[in-house]
Specification:
Length: about 525
């Protein structure tokens, strides 16, 4: 292994890497029994709550359309149903099991979060990941039925595919209906409702909804971040099959015996480097920074007080908190780094950025910051995702008018933290807001529940630690909005309500209030 600067520590023994598995074996009988227990618990919590919404529109108008059925969209739906909002639809463009990143572009072995975290369960113990795992593998060090799998006590971190399968189990157990292979094409408004054009297995249809939740994942507020180089155009046919972003589908088996360059030093860059190495490639990884980030500051911003209280702060303090977290950057997990370091065919060069990337007929030429040129069979950009609402095609009608943080800090602050300044400036309900009043009413029906909510609400719409807080806050806000909109109808219903409490007594008098 070679480092351009800051050679790795080699004069002390490193701790062994704990056992990590992408997926454990399944005990379907145990999961069936746990589902039955969880459903009894949900019944005790009066779930799903009775529908209380008085529809002021035609029956064909939804109360809520949720776009995206990954971890956040599914949990938002669960929270809405617990609040008695039943007239909802949840759609996802992927096939069942392909929602979110877990079975697609997430290439880590395990989640980065501690195994004890909760979120998708919304406080129901029998719906927690721990309950799901212990039902199959036991609470001790050894699995109840599979000696190759650890029990809960010995489990290091949650396997990536285990988490995917757990989310699907929660969905089924809580009866959260998802329409897969169904995408949102466009979003407009008409007659005080949102109008969504969607395409699914049975063709295209127009859906009208009072509220829309966009739970479109990490890139749902922008797009993958592609670095700009003089000789690189992604429309160049020579780039196809040789220039990738970590979000792209890749055939790592085809990289066997090849030399691959990876740009970036974040977790995803290391994950993809590891996949290439495990497939038999030689990998050279590069990063502009001279030092690897050492401390994940976001861990210190994931306790209940922060997650619940951050949204109540004034703008300047919000800006101070998250621009600091962004500037400090998040280091890759140590287990992920060791996954790469285990290969003699891996090298990491810090303090070595790229000036140019030029796809050729049989290779990719990379010009390094010192002017030297290296040739690779393929390159992978581990450069993350941009937040830029102008990149969201489904919001084309509104994107030019979406309020952003750039309008709520000084020009100097916005210039010094360009990405933070592009985050949408959301309402307390997670709704988009208009910068100048254009489409304000329509944008107030669109609620953003993904990474784009972070500057306004903290990471409660994207990361597991804040998921329970965020989904509950979102559901409460939408329930309150719908009640306020229909307050006069509820007043009429209150006056007409005639369920007598004294019917089974001799004091009952028909027609008396």
């Amino acid at each position: 292994m070679s480092y351009e600067t800051n050679s790795p520590i080699v004069d002390r023994a490193l701790a062994p890497v704990p056992l990590q598995t992408i997926s454990s074996s399944r005990n379907h009988d145990a999961l069936t029994a746990l589902s039955q227990q969880a459903r009894r618990d949900l019944q005790r919590l009066n779930y799903p709550a009775p529908n209380w919404v008085i529809a002021p529109h035609a029956d064909s108008v939804l109360d809520v359309l949720i776009v995206g059925a990954g971890m956040c969209g599914q949990t938002a739906a669960f929270a809405l149903q617990r609040e008695g909002l039943r007239n909802i639809r949840i759609i996802d463009a992927a096939a069942r099991g392909g929602e979110g990143p877990w079975a697609t572009y997430a290439r880590m072995l395990t989640l980065r979060s501690p195994k004890q975290l909760t979120g998708p369960d919304l406080g129901v113990p029998s719906l927690t990941f721990r309950a799901w795992y212990e039902a199959q593998h036991g609470s001790g060090d050894i699995s109840n039925f599979d000696a190759s799998m650890p029990g809960w006590a010995a489990l290091h971190k949650i396997g990536r595919v285990d988490w995917r399968d757990y989310l699907l189990w929660v969905r089924d157990t809580a009866d959260i209906p998802v329409e897969n292979l169904t995408r949102l094409d466009s979003l407009t408004d008409e007659d005080s409702v949102a109008v969504a054009r969607i395409t699914g297995p049975h063709g295209s249809e127009t859906v009208r909804a009072r509220k829309v939740i966009l739970a479109l994942g990490r890139d749902g507020s922008g797009a993958p971040r592609w670095p700009s180089f003089p000789s690189l155009s992604m429309q160049d046919p020579l780039a196809k099959g040789r220039v990738f972003h970590t979000m792209d589908e890749m055939d790592f088996t085809a990289m066997q015996g090849k030399t691959i360059a990876v740009l970036g030093a974040g977790a995803s860059a290391f994950d993809n480097a590891a996949c290439a190495l495990e497939a038999g490639a030689t990998v050279q990884q590069f990063a502009r920074r001279k030092l690897m980030p050492q401390i994940n500051k976001s861990k210190a911003a994931s306790f209940p007080g922060f997650l619940r209280g951050y949204s109540q702060l004034d703008d300047q303090r919000k800006w101070r908190f998250y621009t600091y977290i962004f500037d400090e950057q998040v280091p890759p997990p140590w287990e992920t780094v060791r996954r790469c370091d285990a290969f003699s065919t891996f090298s990491l060069q810090l303090g070595c950025g790229w000036k140019d990337v030029q796809p050729m007929q049989d290779s990719v030429h990379v010009t390094l910051s010192d002017g030297s040129i290296k040739h690779f069979d393929a390159v992978i950009f581990g450069t993350g995702f941009d937040v830029d609402m102008l990149n969201r095609p489904e919001l084309e009608r509104y994107s030019a008018y979406i309020d952003t943080w750039a309008h709520h800090v000084s020009p100097q602050q916005a210039a010094s933290s360009i990405e933070a300044a592009r985050f949408p400036y959301l309402a307390p309900s997670f709704a988009l807001q208009s910068v100048d009043g254009t489409h304000a009413e329509a944008m107030g029906r669109i609620h953003l529940f993904n990474w784009g909510a972070t500057m306004t609400h903290a990471a409660v719409g994207s990361d597991i630690p804040g998921l329970g807080v965020g989904s509950t806050r979102l559901a409460h806000a939408i329930a309150a909005d719908l009640f306020v909109q229909d307050a006069d109808l509820h007043w009429q219903h209150l006056q007409e309500f005639d369920e007598s409490e004294l019917l089974e007594t001799r004091w009952h008098q028909a027609g008396e209030a």
